[in-house]
Structure formats: C-alpha cells, structure tokens
Structure to design on (232 residues):
C-alpha cells in the first residue's frame, strides 16, 4: 500500500500558459500532501504544504499566486503553475502523508519544460 | 532557521565495503529523521527512519544512528552492492505534534553514492 501517482509525468508548454499537475494517493487517505521542486543533481526544495479542505502553507520565497495549490479531497492535490516562464522549468514532486503518520510517500514526479 | 546539512556530497566505495553518510540538523525539537534513496529519474524511496526516542535502528544492511545531544544522525550501509548506487537524502521533521498540519520535513542536500564493482 501507500502508492502515490502524479499526472502528467512530463509536460511541455509555451511561456505565459498555465499548467496543472495532479497528485493522487491511490490506496490511502492523505490529509497532508507536500509539493517539492527539484533541480538537476540537487535536493528536494519544499514549496508548500497542502492540507485537505484548507489553504496551503507556502514556504518563504514561493509565490502563492504563481503556484496555486488545491487539496480538494483526501486523495487529490493539484499544483497549478500560472503564467509559466522558462525559469519555472523543473522537476516537481509531490508526497502524501496519512493522518497521524510521519512517513511521506512520494509521487513519480512531473518534468515541466517551459519554452 | 531550519537547516539540514549532509556530508559527503559524493562518496565512492568498493563493492563489499561500508558507506557512511552523516547529517546534522539545527532544530533540537526535531523528532523524526527519515532517509530516502533516489535513483536517477525516479521518485525518492524511504529506506529507513528513526524517531528521537531511539538511538539506533537497523534493517538488514542498513542502520541509522541518532545523537540528539549533538544533533547528528548517520546512515550506515554495510556490504555495499552496485545496486546501492544512488543519491541518498537525509531529512528532519520540523514543527509541533506528530502528523499535524504544522510540521514539515526538510531535506539535506544529498549524497551521491557510487559502488564500484
């Protein structure tokens, strides 16, 4: 158990457009989901914490109006990159955690390329 | 602020030798320390974790030790195999409570481990 999926696995978009990435917990209920950004050969940078039914908590330096996060159900969180620019190109990974638990289960990631 | 340091950044060992990766954390209130393995192009996978009420935990060839006083924790891999080659991340949990919305896990910068056959 504890499988997390992400969709799409990769996406290429034009500068100025918006892209939505979905993160789903397939076999458990995730009260909390996390969104990370990872640059090549670098660590996981926490962008925001998404709690079901409430507003996301963003890390310092992450623009909430640019990276819109919605956690509408216990199995789905979405990250929308609005007005994407080439500098937003990166690998975005989500993780999900059960209520009361500590372990985070990661999704496979989404490679975003903005032209 | 919240910070996790990790050393070394790269590590090469001969197959069969041991590998040790060390991490330090800044918040003495941290109480959960997971280790993740990430192979190229794949998702991070939890390999072992330890909580602050335990000093050591072992799972087959992998062990983790925690020194709360010094705010250090380490990953030990014995009898390394080529398939152990990957990037390893340590992490520490910040915040209050267990599994609440007020906590988060901060990752170290990673260690690229290469096991030479």
């Amino acid at each position: 158990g504890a499988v997390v999926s992400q969709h799409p696995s990769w996406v290429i978009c034009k500068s100025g457009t918006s892209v939505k990435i979905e993160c789903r917990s397939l076999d458990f209920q995730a009260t909390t989901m996390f969104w990370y950004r990872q640059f090549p050969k670098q660590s996981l940078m926490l962008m925001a914490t998404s709690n079901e039914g409430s507003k996301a908590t963003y890390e310092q330096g992450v623009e909430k109006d640019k990276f819109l996060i919605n956690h509408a159900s216990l199995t789905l969180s979405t990250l929308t990159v609005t007005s994407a620019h080439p500098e937003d190109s990166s690998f975005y990974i989500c993780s999900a955690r059960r209520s009361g638990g500590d372990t985070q289960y990661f999704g496979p990631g989404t490679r975003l390329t903005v032209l | 602020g919240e910070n996790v340091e990790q050393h070394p950044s790269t590590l090469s060992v001969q197959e069969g030798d041991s590998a040790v990766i060390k991490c330090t954390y800044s918040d003495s209130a941290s109480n959960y320390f997971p280790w993740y393995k990430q192979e190229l192009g794949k998702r991070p996978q939890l390999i072992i974790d330890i909580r602050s009420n335990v000093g050591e935990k072992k799972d087959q060839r992998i062990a983790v030790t925690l020194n709360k006083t010094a705010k250090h924790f380490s990953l030990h891999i014995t009898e390394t195999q080529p398939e152990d080659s990957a990037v390893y991340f340590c992490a520490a949990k910040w915040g209050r409570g267990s599994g609440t919305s007020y906590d988060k896990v901060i990752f170290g910068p990673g260690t690229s481990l290469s096991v030479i056959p």
Notes: The first strand of chain B starts at residue 4 and ends at 7. Chain B has no helices and eleven strands. Chain B has a mean pLDDT of 91. The two ends of chain B are 41 Å apart (CA to CA).
